[in-house]
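Entry:
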Amino acid sequence: MHKLRRPAGFSLMELMVVIAIIAIVSALIVPALQSYGLRESARANAQNLAAILADIRARAIDQGTNYLVFFANPLTLRNPFGPTPPIAQIVQDVDGNWLNSPGDVVQNVFAYQDTRAAVSVYGVAGAPPFGTAPLSPEDFSGAAIPDLASLANGTTFPTFAGAPALGFTPRGVPVDLNNPNNPGSGAGAVYLTDNNKTVYATVLLPLGGVRVRVLDPNLNNWL
């Protein structure tokens, strides 16, 4: 007589164990992936803004003319209910009067295309994290601001006509549009967050260089 062999396959109990393992692993991995995606979206926006500022500065130097940057107020990265407005207008100051005048060349710039809904400029949406953390040490314009929670609309750029704004001289130096003869006065930063675990700073230095920094909440320090 031949011994009866068990048919190949899984028993119901084995399938239930596999399903339970998959559910447990998913419960651990999915939130981590979502958190990572938010952090990457915030980082991408910080780098996008840094690239925009560096490009405007390069245009001012290459073309030997003033360039102006007028930020939206508040600065909105994404509108879930319709088209997202530009984060800023770039103006080639053709007549050199440090104003957006007829005849100047205007261009809209936008946030990173795939911005997650939870990512915003610090303090503009939700309850952003680490409010007692200091500003980036390279943000010299924010020296009098004690912590992130004290930011106005998430930026330390000077205001002009009620909104954050700055200009670049033909030498690439940022200036405050209220006093464009003061070199370096247009320096500042925009702080971006996933409103969860991460804060990034896009910092414009007094001589026109741009840096992106991330807050280490464990050390309460910027990397």
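The helical segments are 12-63.
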